[in-house]
Amino acid sequence: MIDEHHIDALTKLLGDKGVVTRPEDMEAYGIGARYDRGRAAAVLRPATTAEVSAAVSYCVRTGIPLIPQSGNTGLVSGSTPDSSGDEVVLSLDRLTHQFALDLDNRSVRVDAGFRLSDLNRRLEEHDLFFPIDLGADPRIGGMVATNTGGSRFLKYGDVRRNTLGLKVVVADEAGTVLDLDSDLRKNNTGVDWKQIFIGTSGAFGIVTECVLNLERVPKQSATAFLVPASGAVLPLLKAMEERLGAYLSAFEGMSKNAVAAAFAHVPSLKNPFQGGNIPDYVILAEVSRTWDPREGEEPLDAVLENVLAEIWELEGAPLADALVGPPHEIWALRHALSEGVKHLGKLIAFDLSFRRGDIMPFCDHMKAEMPEKFPGVTVCDFGHIGDGGVHFNLVVAKDSPLLADPTFEQRLREWVFAVAVEQYHGSFSAEHAIGRRNQAYYDFYTPEKLKEMAAGLKMLTSPGKLGSVRFG
After folding, report:
1. pTM
2. N or C: which end of the chain has fewer CB within 10 A?
3. Burial class (CB in 10 A: 0-12, 13-18, 19+), 238
4. Distance between CA atoms of 288 and 134, rounded to whole angstroms?
């Protein structure tokens, strides 16, 4: 709970619209996108960087713990309060005023509360976009805090690669505002301080303003479902990269179980596979160009078909089948995977990353071991094969006796992380950051010296009670 005099003081700083205290109005801020449900003492909704600074300063001076919340689309309990009712949520949902487009620099300065969809809608008339492709619709500040990747990481990279500058409020007694919002693409005048705040879950400071790199919207694209020959996913990727270069914008892997779940959940999806028989593994490949078709230029569909025909003729060809089709139909299946898998039963999801050559060996190993280690658990994996990421989703039937065992999920998670990190030298968090759900694994797998350094940076930047993650 929070004392009434604190509410009065914060209302004077932020106005009536800036403070929410009624339980029914706060409920949505306490519910996560998938797992978590917490209870906030209050919700603060500052509308400017100055108001964020004032609110943070007050809360640090009075010892009120703050949980920064952006779009609340994360899956690791990083943006919601715990169940104590003592934490205050600081939401970015009113930070949506500044939008300054610099066409010459191909960049935009924008408040951190903008939704990704709203940002790209405004950029549409200029044939530009912020090139992070996601199934969710987060706010920009949260994307920075978690260093989001997405389905076209292969071509455009992650948020870190596309962030030029930031404005950040740190959790000290002054609510200090750090102006790191340079528009420069090259600046080697010392420490690149903005990188301290990207991907650290909002624990080092609250991002209120961003300067983002923009890319040209593709004017041409071609897509295909590819069926790799047995054990040939990586050789197929390498063959595609060798022949397509920068044209290749996505190389997404989808397991049979995940695809079947999408078809079952969304009956309107078109099943393009012969006889409706889903292959054991499918790749969604996309190629794109940023210019309109030119006279005499080979259409992208033809480019893709010719490359696939060439790969087909290779000795020990890594390609067993290919289905070139309309991009909207092919991407519809990819975007339906998450919801399809979620509706199969109890979902236990992992966001992992590996060296590209280790993704399929890891998945094959787990599928072979799962029936013995945890019978009754179904693997429904899919992910960004081109950049080494995999959404390793495990599903348990809702009536399974496994769910009656209170130790089951923890044992399963510990085994998956142990294999991923210790045997395959991967990461237990590819792009969802840490959050309370992954805190124990950060504590276990992070070397003591690195935890010590992270804790030092936390104390240097934001000594106050900020965020749900403990660095150190």
Report:
1. 0.92
2. N
3. middle
4. 17
